[in-house]
Amino acid sequence: MSLPLAARIARREMRGGLGGFTVFLLCLMLGVAAIAAVGTVRSAIQTAITDQGAVLLGGDAEMSFTYRYASEDERAFMEDRATRVAEIVDFRSMAVVGEGEGAERALTQIKGVDAAYPLTGKVVLDPPMPLAEVLGDKDGLPGAVLDPVLADRLGLGIGDRFRLGVKEFRVRARLMREPDGATAGFTFGPRTIVRSDALAGSGLLEPGSLFDTHYRLLLPEGTDLRAMKTEAEDAFNDTGMRWRDARRGAPGMQRFVDRMGSFLVLVGLAGLAVGGVGIGAAVTSYLDSRVETMAALKAMGAESRTIFAVYLIQVGVLAVIGIFAGLALGAALPVLAGPLIAARLPIPVEMVVAWKPLAEAGFYGALAAALFALWPLARTRDVQAAALFRDLGPGRRRWPGWRLGLILAGVAALLVAVATIASGVPSLALGTLGGVAAALLVLTIAAFGLSWLARRTGHHMRGRPALRLALSAIGGPKEEARAVVLSLGLGLSVLAAVGQIDANLRGAIAQDLPDVAPSYFFVDIQPDQIDGFRTRLEDDPAVTKIESAPMLRGVVTKINGRDARDVAGDHWVVRGDRGLTYAAAPPPDTKVVAGEWWPEDYSGPPQMSFALEEADEIGLKLGDRVTVNVLGREIEAEITSFREVDFGTGGIGFVMSLNPAALAGAPHSWISTVYADEAAEAVILRDLASAYPNITAIRVRDVVNRVADALAAIARATAIAAGVTLLTGVVVLIGAAAAGERARIYEAAVLKTLGATRGLVLKSFALRSALMGAAAGIVAVAFGAAAGWAVMVFVMEGTFRFEPVSAISIVTGGALATLLAGLVFALRPLAARPAQVLRARD
Fold it and tell me: Pfam families attached here (predicted)?
């Protein structure tokens, strides 16, 4: 084989035009552009998090504590090593406006800061002014900065008064951006910033109150953060101290961006798979139109390998054009939409062209083009010189041969390997790619099944000529049904899966939880307030149930004398501080499933009851010893019982419960859940908040709404990615309809010659398109439901309920899409004159 000769023939043939490759280019371009765009946005956010680690964190390093301020030794450690230290106290409370029955209340996340805050970055206020000036005393009242959402909810303007606990503050500015806001994570209420010393006398930071302290450090240039972290953890390993530094200034956000970005790239790969169907169909259609050229080359002595090389070069050139067009589009869109994207992010992000995600997208595009184009290209070797004189039909062999089959298997394996490694979440990557492969297999089987069923039933439709013609066309030797079902079906499958998952998540939060959840979750109830708190609620006929328990926070540091993380890995129980309680007897509705509860008057060595499910996940058994750090004090307790704990009820649930003597003397507060009629909620809140201003009330419905909003944002991003997949499917669908237009012109001419009316021909074309679209939609709904079930049960660990509305929309949309495409490309066949068409095919 002469490669230069093949290249010369390919170049000369390409001069005559490459009609029919529009779909090829669009499919490749859209798939690559989707992956490139997601990768560009992801890279920009990751770069911002890395470059602005100190700004996002609020310093070069941070030492945090729960329920307490730093001790003298801890402060001395920080001041000896840092050039500046800022102290922050963070907690939830109620902001109150007005008095008595007319008072308005709203939950807020309070940040108490000192004069050194912020160490890095800048707090953006409206009106613009220095933070120190805003928070200082004026006219006898300390100043405060409020999130605009909180200010609007309470109807507060600049200069208005409000209360935190029993102390009054004055609104001096609105908070537009805080530099360390991305590290706050999920909060139950909008932000309020005040001076820490102004909280004295508010009654909000009493012993046992729920609060965290964060100490931000500015360190000398060149400080080894890794070594300093090791030094701090060695010095204060038993105090419950938590360390973060600028190497990962916003780990929660980084983790979310990585997971979400990986998932969207994988959805983009699903779109590329849809485009691959179009690539294969476009290459097949183009090569079918070049059969006579191939036969002529064969008659003149060209080898099969040379002919294969000619068209491989052409497809390769077009693939490069499509990939570069997709990369240009994928890089340009995020840059052009940069201001809009940045405005929706909690950190300043600059959208710039990033070469790594572009290279990744281009590599995916090249592999997809090779995977779907090589198979039809293999058929060029089977074209015979006799094709110049007679139509050999579609009967050429479909299997590309063992050598090319191994190459295709290698390309597919490389694609899977790269996607799995690049995603950073192997299980997610393998699950998504496995789902795409399964969908393609199911859709292929469905396409063949549809053709088989059409052949079997077509001859029974004697009284329905239009339906009979449609079924005959679907069951015929052409591959239109397979192209339509594969392309549209895979796009609809992704959309159907997203719709089912989104509907189930919304249903679980917005419907299931409120039916069983309490009205309010009260925290920071002091021990001397709990009796009066209960008395007020027990006398109220609108209250159906009250649950209350003492609550402390502790960090699980050791299990059987070993570091807890070495035993439990990254399990959520050992990640950060956890709530724990004590009880002399098992609380009502508690089910002890193994071991025994301690006697009510027990005062021996500490004993612990552990949640059964979490114990099984960690690998704990009766007799194991768990060490918990509570306010700097290490408590080692023996597990003497396991109990069932259902955290899905919205009620009170603790992983760990100790005997009362184990926590004797430890400052703590109480929490309570209140189940009441919705009509009585406002009165209950007013009475309790008036009697106990320090108590924080969290309305469960508000939490539900915040979670639902977060899920809605995720669903929108996923739906956009799924929409690109569907758009690619529509392009393939249009390409399939366009490729079949020539055959339909001939078909319409024959039918008209045999006496069929234009209406009958149009009706048969419409039924054919609608049946194929409906079949694709039905298969997509079934596969989407299966994928939704798998995600809800195995990933979300929830229950699945089939959602019919989106399913009906998917089936209807599939039928309409194919119907419209079929009708658009039926106009020319209907207008064609039979004599002209049949003479041309003579």
Answer: FtsX, MacB_PCD
